[in-house]
Amino acid sequence: MKNSSLLTIAGSDSGGGAGVQADIKTFAACGVHAVCVITAVTSQNTLGVQHVFALPAEVVVGQLESIFSDFDVGFAKTGMLYSSETIHAAGKYLKKHDVSYVVDPVMSAEAGGNLLSTDALLSLKDLIKDAFVVTPNRFEAQTLTGVTITSIDDAKRAALKLCEIGASAVVVTGGHLDCRDVVLSGGRFKVINGSVGGGTHGAGCTYSASLTANLMLGDDVFDAAKKAKNFVIDAISSSRQVGCGAAPVNQMHRIIKDANRFNVLQDLAYAVKQLQECGECVLLLPEVGCNIAMAIKEASTPDDVAAVEGRIVRLHDKMHPAGCISFGASRHVARIIISALRFNPLLRAAMNIRFTPEILDACNKLKLNTASFSREDEPSLTKTMDWGTSYAFLHAAKTPDVIYDEGGVGKEAMIRLIGTDALSVAKKAIVIARIASNA
Ligand code: PXL
Question: Which positions fall inside the Thiamine-phosphate synthase ThiN domain (predicted)?
Answer without folding.
Answer: 268-430
